[in-house]
Amino acid sequence: MELIDLQCNSGLKDVFHEKKLVEFYYSLLPNDQFQNLRKFARRMCTVFGSTYICEQTFSLMKLNKSKLRSRLTDDYLHDVLWMSVSNFEPNFEKLVAEKQPQRSH
């Protein structure tokens, strides 16, 4: 019913053609009248975002585990992928400062 109401509303139809799709469903579509349609649009947008992340991860895995690097274990490959897709930035200065240098005998 919400979709029929949206199709019959000429004001919203004009706004739909002028604005970006995500902007229309997230901020311009009234929540009190079209809450189910907004919920459906949110679900559809997140599906494509998660698919992109999945495809990106498989591409990184293929790049890292090639014929030249076929001896990578699954654990090591997991660690390489984790570092490739995460936003974690190690603090190298702190890591180096915590290590004790090896002294000669």
Automatic annotation (TrEMBL):
SUPFAM superfamilies: Ribonuclease H-like. It comes from the Eukaryota. This is General transcription factor II-I repeat domain-containing protein 2-like.
